[in-house]
Structure formats: C-alpha cells, structure tokens
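Late entry, written up from scratch paper. The run itself happened at the end of the previous shift, but nothing got recorded in the book at the time, so transcribing now.
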Amino acid sequence: MCASQDRHDGQPEWAADPAEGDRYLGWRDLTVWKTRLGRIVAALASRAARWIGPYPVLALTLLVGVVLVVALTAVSVEIYEAVVETDGVAGLDEPVLRAAMAARTPQLNAAVTAFTDLGGPVIMPILAAVAAIALAIWHRQVGPVVLMAVATAGSLLMTTVGKALVGRIRPPLADAVAPYETSASFPSGHTLNAVVVAGVVAYLLVLRQQRWRTRAATVAAAVVFAVAMGLSRVFLGHHWLTDVLVAWTLGLAWLAVVITMHRLYLTVRHVRPRR
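Output as recorded:
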C-alpha cells in the first residue's frame, strides 16, 4: 500500500521507511511544490541528486543556507541602522523599558528570570538536544537530530555575526534585573534561539500529528514560548525592544530556510531512482 493510500485510510504506515512519514503535513505532500520558484528549485535539486547523489546536494543546500544566514543578518543590520537614524521603532525602546521597570515586583522578577534562563547558553542547548533525540526516537531516524543541529548552528551564527557587526550596548545596568549580561545587545540571542528551537520542534511534531487541533495547539505553544522569551528579555532590561523585534524576524526567516531545506531533502529522497 502506498503512503498516499495510507493517508486516506487514516492509518499511515512508516515501518518500511520512517522518512515517508515526514512527507506529509496533514493531507499535504511536502514533496509537491505549488509555486513556480519552488518547482524550479526542487527540479534542480532532484536533477543534481541523480548526478552526484542526494547527500552532496544536501551539503550544497546547507552551504546556500549558511550564505543566506549571513545575508539575512547583514540586511537586518542595515534595517536596524536605518530605523535608528529615523528614530522609528527605536523610539519605542526607552518608553517600553520604562513601562517594564514600572511593572516589576520581586516575585515577578524571580519568575521571569527563571523562565528566561530556559533560553540561555546552558539550558537551551540541553533542551534542544533532548527534544531532538526524543523526536529522533519517535520518528525512528536521525533526521530530527541533524535538522536541529543545522538550525541551532545557523541561529548561533546569526547571533554572533549580528552582535559583531552592530556592537550595540545593552540597557543600563541600573535599569536591569540581576544577573547582568555584558555581551553586545543586538540581536537577542535568547529570542532568536527560542524561535528556531521551538519552531523546529513544532515542525517535526506536526509532521506526525493527525488532528488539525493538535497541530494548531503545537504551533500555538511554540509561538507563545518564542514571544514570551522575547518579552522576558525586555522586561528584565537585558535587551532593547528592537533587539527582540529583529530576533523574531531573523528567527522566522531562518526557520523558513531550514524547513525549505528539509522539504528539498524529502523531495530528493522521494524522487531519486531506487538502486
């Protein structure tokens, strides 16, 4: 019985090839590209896979993804500098920080600090690794581990490049909640990593979830986590609002690149000739 037939029966079978289960998001076949650009890219990747094999194609795709990471970060820096010059969104930085300071209480500060620590350089990698391993066991393949590794590596690269290019100073320590941070402020690494890690986990979960309500709840939980992480950074005075806004947009852009790379992998794997 083919995978599409399994889907229509409501009982997909992945025992023969676990990767086949990742081909579908609900009823949608991810190896079918509906846009003209998508079809062109998928056709080029599939054709290249017949000549050099699927894994070299994936390596090339990853290289393109790295270039896109650097390009996206550079563009965000240009947008940020333009915004600062016109005092547009950056004009909200000080008022939002003042509003956050007015809302603080010792109990709320402790709770938000405990939450924001989840996105830090110690706990977030652990959470990402545990989630990737658990998903790999559930999917019965190493794909989730590879996807998470690529996604987090790109996120860290974007954060590093952005901080180096801008070198923005964080809000004054007098306006922040301890423990204090001294690295560059732009973009918010906690927020960027939260978007990417939560997004990848949600994406891999919805690939195997059959009910649309379950998929909607999974996506909503990822969105709430990423939004709350960004707001926690502003509330504690560890980042300016614009640091978080750019981190959200960069994270979503990189997440879109990672998901597209995964779809190309599924497409190449699906159409390549069997030996």
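The longest helix spans residues 54-86.
(Scratch paper discarded after transcription.)
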